[in-house]
Amino acid sequence: MASTAAALSRALVAVMCAVLLHSSMAQQPAPGSHCSPHTQPPPAPAPAPAPPPPPTISLPPAPTPTPTPAPPPIDCRNLCVSDCDHNCTASYDAGLSQCQAQAAADFNDCYASCTSEKCPGKSCEHSGCGVGNCTCDNPNASNCCQECAFAASSIYTTCRSQYGGSYVYYCMLGCTSSCFKTCP
């Protein structure tokens, strides 16, 4: 029996060696171990892979600016009529004022000349007669006033005829025609 036990013990040791040998055949010895004289130095480690390129950053597209709305179209008819009416009326009023100023200046020149001839001394100077008032106590001053008022009135009427009722009409025709040609 002792020989059977020794045989079994040897067989068990042989099986264990076979199992260990078989399992170690697939493994490489650990680095730095020099168990076998046939061991080659370990291969150089593989180079580390290159780092991936940085991610491409794409910015969102710039916002499209909101276009400025076009200004409303110009209403040339109303614009021209309004401007020309204002300009022609102002010109008419200025013309009449100029006629009145000219008539008053002509009256004053006429009255001064007349009274200097017809009034002895300075007797007509403070008579109270003048533009728009020819009733005064001095008959010479009153007579000069009436003569000069008539002359000034005639000059005023001639001047005013340039600015008659048709003045604004013809001014408007010319002004609007010119305005329509240049209106955008």
TrEMBL record:
Disordered: annotated span: 29-69
- Bias (Pro residues) occurs at 39-69
* Annotated signal sequence range: 1-26
Domain of life, source organism: Eukaryota
The record's keywords, sorted A to Z, are: Signal
Q: What is this protein called?
A: Uncharacterized protein
